[in-house]
Design a protein that fits this description.
The complex is a heterodimer. Chain A contains nine helices and ten strands. Chain A is α/β, with parallel strands linked by helices. Chain A folds into two domains: about 170 residues, Rossmann fold, CATH 3.40.50; about 70 residues, no CATH class. A ten-stranded mixed beta sheet of chain A has the order 5-4-1-2-10-9-3-8-7-6, sandwiched between helices. The longest helix of chain A is centred in the C-terminal third of the chain and has 18 residues. The radius of gyration of chain A is 18 Å and the shape is globular. In chain A, about 40% of the residues are buried. Chain B is an all-alpha fold. Classes of the chains: A alpha/beta, B mainly alpha. Chains A and B meet through strand 6 of A and helix 7 and helix 8 of B.
């Protein structure tokens, strides 16, 4: 069974079609990127999948269950990490916060938080407050928060669009490493073609708004990926060129 | 260093006040030393238990009740579109009533009593904290609201763990304004209709032409206002450490 199955999904704001007819599936353990031009309805699509926005048409199934409202085993990493973290709680407190309503013991919560912070390399910053951290570190906190929640599916909405290039490369590698360690299924939305190819097992290319899936590309790059050799490889260049053509059409 | 300069300024102001009042010799404006004498005579006497303490309890009690009411109603209005649509105009209307106007009304209802005083204080000082709570609760970032939904926070955790702290800076600003209004209303209510309290003693001293005594009660009210505000600022400082990176 697919982890996520989207069939005929569409969303209309008033009379404006943002997403017209999107269907795809994500298999367990896969990392799928959705790439599309700015304003193509990517975020709307993601919000519908997360259950934050009721879709106008179509269905979303998370491991077989039809999604209506936010499912209990799904986490989202937002682009605006600074607006998504609680400024009055420490790093530890932020990661632990969503676990409090899940009926876990204090000990279990603590061990989950510590594990997640270790995955993202922030064990030493547990007692700090978000404003004491750089943007990249703050985004790592929100990734740790999502990981500690142990969702079946992690959605990421332009997660690296607000950090500088070097931090972005570091965070990309962090996601690749952590999703293997945590065995996470990831669906990531981005407008950056290179990023989608670098990260994904599969790339879904969206048309301009109203969004449809124009093409699904399997990314056959060797693992583990490397910022320099992978990005310089022939198949990387071929894939990014193909996606760029599809998007600029 | 700054503290020394401030103390120096205060000392000089008192000195000038003393000198001017002694020179002018107007009985309505007694020199500060005579006011201080009256203060030493009146404040620690039986008046402390009979007047100062009751006043303090009324102002703090009324203000606390107004704060709880204001925060609860304000947060609910701030987070519920429907509630705001139905009720907000009522509150904006009620708020424009000058609260001292209600002293005669509450006097009719409750008579000359502590209830009358507390009712006046509550009704007058609830608005700043209520309206600021509405504002604060509304200002919760939409991304934060989405985050809370994604992680399926319980309603209580959302309200107490996210909305209330996020609204904290605005709520505290409202609490400070409410506190100063509560103090003013305490005095007005006591001057007009009470049989004890600082305001009552102020009125009595005035009636008995004990002018240094009258001024000493005025000084005590200022002093209390200052100390209460300092106390609240200290609490605010502790509670909102996070908002001042």
């Amino acid at each position: 069974m697919s982890m996520l199955e989207v069939t005929g999904l569409g969303h209309t704001y008033g009379s404006v079609d943002a997403v017209s007819d999107v269907s795809f599936a994500v298999e367990p353990g896969e990392l799928v990127c959705i790439v599309g031009p700015s304003g193509s309805g990517k975020s709307t699509l993601l919000r519908c999948i997360a259950g934050l926005l009721p879709a106008s048409r179509g269905d979303v199934f998370l491991h077989g269950d039809r999604v209506s409202g936010v499912p209990s085993d799904l986490a989202v990493v937002f682009q605006d990490y600074s607006r998504s973290l609680l400024p009055w709680r420490t790093v530890f407190g932020n990661v632990e916060f969503p676990l409090r309503d899940r009926g876990l013991s204090t000990v279990e919560r603590r061990s989950r938080v510590e594990e997640a912070l270790a995955w993202v390399g922030l064990s030493g910053a547990a007692g700090k407050h978000p404003h004491e951290l750089s943007g990249g570190m703050q985004q790592r906190v929100s990734i740790a928060r999502a990981l500690a929640y142990r969702p079946a599916l992690m959605l990421m909405d332009e997660p690296f669009a607000s950090v500088d290039a070097q931090t972005r490369a570091d965070l990309e590698d962090l996601v690749l490493k952590v999703r293997l360690e945590a065995g996470m299924t990831v669906l990531l939305v981005t407008h950056d073609i290179d990023e989608s190819v670098y990260l994904a097992d599969r790339v879904l290319v969206l048309s301009p708004s109203p969004a449809t899936v124009v093409e699904t590309l399997k990314v056959d790059l060797a693992s583990p990926r490397d910022q320099i050799t992978t990005r310089g490889s022939e198949s990387f260049v071929r894939l990014r060129t193909e996606i760029a053509r599809l998007i600029r059409r | 260093m700054n503290a020394w300069i401030r103390a120096g300024v205060l000392f000089c102001a008192l000195l000038v006040w003393q000198w001017v009042t002694v020179e002018v010799g107007n009985p309505y404006f007694p020199p500060p030393l005579r006011v201080a004498e009256a203060a030493v005579r009146l404040w620690p006497s039986h008046h402390f238990a009979a007047d100062v303490l009751p006043s303090l309890l009324r102002v703090l009690g009324g203000w606390a009740a107004a704060s709880v009411l204001g925060i609860v109603i304000g947060v609910l209005l701030g987070r519920s579109r429907a509630a705001a649509d139905y009720f907000e105009f009522v509150f904006t209307f009620l708020r424009t009533l000058p609260p001292p106007l209600l002293v005669p009304v509450f006097m009719l209802i409750f008579g000359i009593s502590t209830e009358m005083e507390v009712a006046t204080i509550v009704f007058g000082s609830v608005w700043p904290v209520l309206l600021n709570s509405v504002d604060g609760a509304r200002s919760v970032d939409p991304v934060m609201a989405d985050t809370a939904r994604v992680f399926r926070l319980s309603r209580a955790r959302w309200l107490f763990g996210v909305v209330l702290p996020a609204a904290g800076p605005k709520i505290f600003a409202g609490l400070r304004v409410s506190l100063s209004i509560a103090l003013i209303l305490m005095v007005i209510a006591e001057v007009v209709g009470a049989t004890s309290g600082i305001g009552y003693q102020l009125g009595t001293a005035q009636g008995a032409s004990d002018l240094p005594g009258m001024w000493s009660w005025i000084a005590l009210i200022s002093l209390l206002g200052y100390l209460l505000n300092r106390g609240l600022l200290a609490v605010e400082h502790r509670a909102l450490v996070w908002s001042r990176p």
